[in-house]
Known about the structure:
The structure is a single chain. The chain is α/β, with parallel strands linked by helices. It has 9 helices and 17 strands. Pathway: Cofactor biosynthesis; thiamine diphosphate biosynthesis. It is an enzyme of class 1 (oxidoreductase). It comes from Salinisphaera aquimarina. This is Glycine oxidase ThiO.
Amino acid sequence: xxxxxxxxxxxxxxxxxxxxxxxxxxxxxxxxxxxxxxxxxxxxxxxxxxxxxxxxxxxxxxxxxxxxxxxxxxxxxxxxxxxxxxxxxxxxxxxxxxxxxxxxxxxxxxxxxxxxxxxxxxxxxxxxxxxxxxxxxxxxxxxxxxxxxxxxxxxxxxxxxxxxxxxxxxxxxxxxxxxxxxxxxxxxxxxxxxxxxxxxxxxxxxxxxxxxxxxxxxxxxxxxxxxxxxxxxxxxxxxxxxxxxxxxxxxxxxxxxxxxxxxxxxxxxxxxxxxxxxxxxxxxxxxxxxxxxxxxxxxxxxxxxxxxxxxxxxxxxxxxxxxxxxxxxxxxxxxxxxxxxxxxxxxxxxxxxxxxxxxxxxxxxxxxxxxxxxxxxxxxxxxxxxxxxx
Length: 390
């Protein structure tokens, strides 16, 4: 029930702000470790960037990322098949993990890709037109070669979000509060005392901020200038016709930074744009035309398919795409997990496990140092109170 008395503060072991995949996976792990967790979300869990993405369980061009991202990605990719099965078994909601591989078309810097493949032990091979058109016969004419990553998987992220939410609702140790907007963080003398919201004040021994694209905005008002900003991405969904022996596209196909992602029911995603538009999620005709052109350049038959939907989401951009995971500087009971940019869903199992390892004093899965937050506090705001940060 909502808390109407702002002078009354309910406390818990952990308070999580933000109900995307990062927040929900964190809550699940902490609850399974025996802790009481309250998760607050201003909307509905899993309806922001976690819902809006494509669900490829790998960075698009993984060899272009730094080692910190590669370490988390490698761990998470190996974890996803078992995670999807467990959620399906425990909630009855199948996240539809599909390991059908990825075809790269028109790749530049193949030597870098092959070096990464050998270093990471990740299968990646050059294939000719004969292999390309056997795997995907409806590709546009004229492709003579590409790269084939047979182990790549994808997950249907809206279903993943639904399954995670259902799992949390089934746990007695978790209090899930949606429609709760943060209004102020009470912080003094280097300690977070409570979180004022539209539904009263919440307190916790430790608070975890998983606010996605809004994280930097929130932290600025308590004197922490974390370089996390919203980066808009627009996507579209095609409905492809039923076919006798196969779907129109069965594998993830990637060309010039744009990708096609098939779903088990024949639907097909095309994504995505990269736009510096602040917190604006308006869909545009220019994006529609650009996405359609990219789709047709890969699979011309999509010209005859219905476009069911176009949408936009806000990624939490960070320098070099390396997320910030760890304690907030100067506030001893506030922790951050944010800035995953285009790889929030990719990295989520590993990024959340890394933070939970630190919270519970366990041996971390990877060295936490590359993800630590820089100390960017300003002297005149180090004891500020956050206001209006919904």
